[in-house]
Specification:
Low-confidence stretches: 17-28
Structural class: mainly beta
Radius of gyration: 29 Å
Shape: elongated
Mean pLDDT: 83
Strand content: 35-45%
Number of strands: 15
């Protein structure tokens, strides 16, 4: 009987050691990468910058701050799937995103797909050959990624910044609708001007 108690005591001690060791292992997301896309614009208007994840080990929620350059104006945020509910606030060129699981699937599991999960729309003050940064805010305490149990995943994942590149729109000008400038005189013929059908370029002819 004494031997049995010793064996039992040793087994209980071993179980306790294993339990402590397991509890000490942190939630890990090593290799996960969150990326803000880089997109082109060819004129004033709206652009959509996706926020995506790759090597996704699974997460349920996130608090993220995104900085965007002067020349970009925040317009809207849309979720790219039905898993998340997204709330946002934009001020002083910083967009704060609070992302939480809200679908039926999110009741039982983490989001584990790769690809875009948020789409951020900006309006652009177009300047040819100019780039506008869209990046994760440095030194932010809001890059918090959690799992379904509310545990914060350790910061072994990486963040890749993006932006908006304004590129020169290359096309053949089409001047069709010429309108008189009403500048004819007795000595000189008048002129007329047309605006390109595809851009703001104008052409004046006699």
């Amino acid at each position: 009987m004494k031997i049995s108690k010793k064996i039992l005591g040793a087994l209980l001690a071993l179980v306790m050691l294993v339990s402590v060791a397991v509890a000490a292992v942190p939630a890990s997301a090593e290799g996960m990468t969150f990326t803000l896309g880089t997109v082109d614009c060819t004129a004033k208007g709206e652009v959509v910058v996706p926020l995506s994840v790759s090597n996704n080990a699974g997460f349920w929620g996130a608090n993220i701050e995104v900085e965007y350059a002067e020349g970009l104006t925040f317009y809207s945020v849309e979720k790219a799937n039905d898993f998340f509910l997204i709330t946002n606030n934009a001020a002083n060129n910083v967009l704060t995103l609070v992302i939480e699981g809200s679908s039926n699937d999110s009741l039982t599991k983490n989001f584990a797909d790769d690809g875009a999960f948020v789409n951020i729309t900006f309006t652009v003050d177009y300047v040819a050959d100019k780039s506008y940064d869209v990046k994760f805010k440095q030194d932010s305490d809001r890059k918090c990624i959690t799992n379904i149990d509310g545990e914060e995943l350790f910061d072994t994942f990486s963040f890749v910044n993006g932006g908006v590149d304004c590129v020169e729109k290359t096309h053949k000008h089409q001047f069709i609708n010429y309108i008189s400038n009403n500048d004819a005189t007795c000595l000189e013929d008048g002129t007329e001007t047309a605006k390109c059908e595809g851009c703001d370029e104008t052409h004046t002819r006699t």
